[in-house]
Predict the 3D structure of the following.
Amino acid sequence: MFDNLSDRLALTFKKLKGHGKLSESNISEALREVRLALLEADVNYKVAKQFIAKIKDRAVGQEVMKSLTPAQQVIKIVRDELCELMGGEAEPLNLGGKAPHLFMMVGLQGSGKTTTSGKLALMLKRQGRNPYLVPADTQRPAAIEQLKKLGAQIQVPVFDSDPAQDPVDICIQSLAGASRAGCDVIILDTAGRLHVDLELMAQLERIHSRLHPQEVLLVADAMTGQDAVNVAQAFHEQLGLTGVVLTKVEGDARGGAALSIRAVSQVPIKLVGVGEKLDALEPFHPDRLAGRILGMGDVLTLVEKAGEAFEAEKAEAMAKKMATDGFTLEDFKEQLQQIKKMGSLEGLLSMLPGAGKLKGLKDMQPDEKELKRTEAIIDSMTPAERDNHQIINASRRKRIARGSGTSVSEVNRLLKNFTQARKMMKGMAKMGGKKKQLARLMGAMR
Ligand code: GDP
C-alpha cells in the first residue's frame, strides 16, 4: 500500500533538501506536489485541501526546532498531520464492561465481512478471549457455511443458524448458544448487499436496536477507494459505527480510503486486513502508517508481528544471538520456520526502514520447497556441525548431501547463505536495516 504516494513524497522532499533555507515559495511548491500526490493516491479532494492548508499554516508559521533542518521540519509536520488525519492515536477494540461483549460486523457484499469475522475471532482467541461466531447473513447463499468452515478451522464455536430464520431472531437466540459454550465475545456476521439499500439498513437497525452491540464495525474494501469512504459515511449515519475494518489494504497501491475515512466520516479505522489468510488482520496504527508512507519503515509493527508468531522469550534470545556470533545453523533453521509462520517475506521486509524503496519485493515469496530442502540439509548435520559450521569440511559436506538427498553444491550454497545471513542479521539486530543488507538477506533466503 502507498508505494506511489511514498515515492512521490520522497521525490518532493528530496528537492526540498537541496535548499539550506526554506522560503515561502519553495514550501508552496513542495506542498503543491504533496497535494497532487495525495489526489493521485485517491484521497478525497476536500481532505487533501484541508490537509495542505494545515501544513502550510504550521510550516510558514515557523515552529522552529533547532535540531531539525528546514526540510526535515516540513517532513515532520507532514508526518504529524498525516497521523492526525488518520485519527492520531490507535483506537483499540472496546472490550470494556461486562462479558459477553457483542460485536456487530456490517458491510457490503464482497468487502470481506465473513472472512474478517473469522480473522477477528482468531485474533481475540490469541489474546486469551473465547469468541463465538454467529452467521446472521441469510442474504448471501454460502455465507453461513463459509463461517462454519472458518470456525472449524480456527476451533471457534459457531452458532448453528437456520437460513430460513429472521436474522434478528438468529442473533437473539445466539446469545444463549454463546452462554452455553462459555464464550465472552460474540461476533455477529450480518448480511450485506451490493450497494447500500434501505431494506438492508432496516434489518441492521432492527438487530442493532434489539441487541445493543458495543462495537459496530464496518468492514470496507480499501480497493474501492472513495466508494469505501461514502459507504462508511452512509452506514455511520444509519447505525452509528464504532469503527472501521479496512480490508485488502495490501493490494491497494493508492491508499486513499485509509487516508480519508476518518477525516470524512469521523469513524476511526481500528483494524486492517492485509491478506486472505486468517492471521492477516492487524491493529491500525496511524502514527506507524504515517511513518511508513514517508518511507521511515515500521519497525514496531514488525516487532509486534514477530512476537505474535513465536513466543517473546524466544524472540529476545534470538535477538541477542543475532547481535553476536552465537547464531548457529540450528537458529538459522528456526528463523526459516518463523518466516514461514509470518507469511511472505515481502510482508515482513516491507516494514523495515528503507525497504520501501526496494523494488521487486513482490517476487520474494519464500519458496516452500526450498525451505524444506534447507531444513533437510540442516537436519542431516550432527549437533556439533550445527553448532559450529566451520568444521563442515569437504567430506562432511558429501555426507550431509547424501543424508539429505541433495547435492554438495546445494549444501555449499546453504552454508554460504548462512554465513551471509549471519553477518546481515548481526547488522540488522543493531537496527541498521540497510538496503544492501536486505538485498543480501533476500538472496540468502532463496
Ligand atoms: P463478504 O461477502 O463481505 O462476507 O466477503 P468475504 O468474506 O466472502 O470476502 C470476499 C473476498 O475477499 C474473499 O475472497 C476473501 O478472501 C477476500 N478478502 C477478505 N479480506 C481480505 C484482505 O484483507 N485481503 C485480501 N487480499 N483479500 C481479502
